[in-house]
Design brief:
Helix 1 links the parallel strand 3 (22-27) and strand 4 (60-65). This protein folds into 3 domains: 3-262, HUPs (Rossmann fold, 3-Layer(aba) Sandwich); 286-392, Anticodon-binding domain of a subclass of class I aminoacyl-tRNA synthetases (Four Helix Bundle (Hemerythrin (Met), subunit A)); 404-449. It has 15 helices and 14 strands. Strands 4-3-9-10 form a 4-stranded parallel beta sheet, sandwiched between helices. Helix 2 (72-81) crosses helix 3 (85-103), helix 9 (289-296) packs across helix 10 (308-327) and helix 11 packs parallel to helix 13 (378-392). The chain has 450 residues and is an alpha/beta fold. The structure holds one RNA strand of 74 nucleotides.
RNA sequence: GGCGACGUGGCCGACUGGCUAGGCACGGGCCUGCAAAGCCCUUUAAUCGGGUUCGAUUCCCGACGUCGCCUCCA
């Protein structure tokens, strides 16, 4: 039984599936107006790990993740740079999926775009107005949070409590709102801005409406899991939920939120703080697997510090596993059952990847010991390590092909050692190392990796 | 002000009321022609003050500190 912490009930509970064996997941995707940052990388990696693990467990996962391709920030940037807004959204989306590919994050099963669902959103807003839960003002259409009895359920705070403190932050939006917490479902457009027709006037949808419409449309009422970064819990997810409740529809059964990426001082990375690190920089500078490794060694709900030291440690940890993969490459066997059972036990407990990784490292050590002593149990352990890493999306071994020249030198090195011509052997090793290869000379021959 | 999270060894980072997390780094050893990789060993940590308990890093209370949310944000 796979259990996850549920943000709504604040407890770890079994992930109930509407249809056993099939999991429908909705993940709030990016607003495409800039390059992806480390926070995006964490969220997508966490849910990629979740997805791969559950699929490995035999569950058919349908992951729907949207692209927000209409939004104030997109319009702002288009105006600032004097180019068509679609220019920006198309470019950013392709950069996004490039980065995801480099991270080894599988493409979602469905990638709905907000602009493809405007008609459906208009219909939904119409429903909300008809039901008395939404109203038009002179700048848009708003949801009346007071018509949603349990508004604040995800934030775990009542409207009053939220307003009581909120303090110095000014209330955003129209003065005409009936309640300060009411949020925009539809924003009327200014001349020259992208717009769609609606019964209330030309405009564009508010951010919180697209995900309700698209998740319900593609996954249906009462879908299994809704997830995203902790900063989406409120207001975004709260407001999605509010709309569904106001429509009288069953929304997500389970809510999952991942923790933040923080900087060296422990502060959240945030665009407003200006301390965001570009995901693309990280990918350019390091093995893309290092970020996955770092996140695997941190619980998904804990904050994670991403810094040079951290990433270096992950790179080194990866090197150990790579060299293990290299030395055990020839071995085939059935994955050791007891080892896999333990792995499942750990992962099923709220995606406990830190302990699962500890288990992978332990298994690697046991396998290395078996390999050293020629114990036949080694093959099963080797297979188990590969099986577990596969379930976590961690690809072991260098993807780099060993070129013929290097291969020839490695063979020559072995030949020289065989006749105890160590001077030649050492010279060849240095040559290979200078060419960037990690050279491992063993009794059974020399292996090369990057 | 309201709500919440957290404070662990040189660094990162888990679990846990008593029994070695794990990774990285450092040191010693074994192995090796020498390396690399691997294996073994070593270093005895829980912000502070109370309380509960036979026993607390783990539960409760308080203090201090850090961080998050309270309508831009993964």
């Amino acid at each position: 039984m796979f259990a996850l912490y549920d943000t709504l009930t604040r407890e770890i509970k079994t992930l109930e599936m509407r249809e056993p064996g099939k999991l429908g997941v909705y993940l709030c995707g990016p607003t495409v107006y800039g390059p992806p940052h480390l926070g995006h990388g964490r969220a997508t990696l966490v849910y990629d790990i979740l997805r791969r693990y559950l699929e490995w467990r035999g569950i058919a996962v349908r992951l729907v993740s949207n692209i927000t391709d209409i939004d104030d920030k997109i319009i702002d940037r288009a105006n600032r740079e004097g180019r068509p807004w679609q220019d920006i959204t198309h470019k950013c989306e392709s950069v996004w999926f490039d980065a995801m590919e480099r991270l080894g994050v599988q493409r979602p099963s469905d990638v709905p775009h907000a602009t493809e669902y405007v008609e459906q959103m208009v219909r939904m807003i119409g429903n909300l107005v008809d039901r008395g839960s939404a109203y038009a003002t002179n700048d848009g259409v708003y949801l009346s949070v007071e018509t949603v009895p349990d508004y604040g359920a995800l934030a775990h705070q009542s409207i009053d409590e939220m307003l009581a403190g909120g303090g110095d932050r000014g209330v955003l939006g129209a003065q005409e709102k009936r309640h300060p917490a009411d949020f925009a479902l539809w924003k009327f457009s200014k001349p020259g801005e992208p717009s769609w027709p609606s019964p209330w006037g030309e405009g564009r949808p508010g951010w919180h409406s697209e995900c309700v419409v698209m998740s319900l449309e593609l996954l249906g009422e009462g879908f299994d899991l809704h997830c995203g970064g902790a900063d989406l819990r409120f207001p975004h997810h709260e407001n999605e939920r509010a709309q569904a409740v106001a429509l009288g529809k069953r929304f997500a059964r389970h809510w999952m939120h991942n923790g933040f990426v923080v900087d060296a001082e422990g502060e959240k990375m945030s665009k407003s703080l200006g301390n965001v690190t570009n995901l693309l920089d990280l990918l350019d500078r390091y093995d893309a697997r290092a970020y996955r490794m770092l996140l695997l060694q941190t619980h998904y709900r804990s904050p994670v510090k991403v810094g040079q030291d951290n990433i270096d440690a992950s790179v080194n940890a990866l090197a150990g596993l790579d060299s293990f993969a290299a030395r055990s490459a020839g071995l085939v066997g059935r994955p050791d059952e007891a080892t896999l059972a333990r792995f499942k036990e750990l992962m099923d407990d709220d995606l406990d990847t830190p302990n699962a990784m500890a288990h992978v490292f332990d298994t690697t050590r046991r396998a290395n010991t078996a390999l050293d002593s020629g114990d036949a149990a080694g093959a099963g352990l080797v297979a188990a390590v590969h099986e577990m890493c596969g379930a976590l999306g961690l690809v072991l071994g260098s993807a780099v092909e060993v070129d013929d020249d290097a291969q020839a030198k490695a063979a020559a090195l072995d030949a020289a050692r065989l006749v105890k011509d160590f001077a030649t052997a050492d010279a060849l090793r240095i040559e290979l190392q200078n060419a960037g290869w990690v050279v491992e000379t063993t009794k059974s021959g020399t292996t090369l990796r990057r």
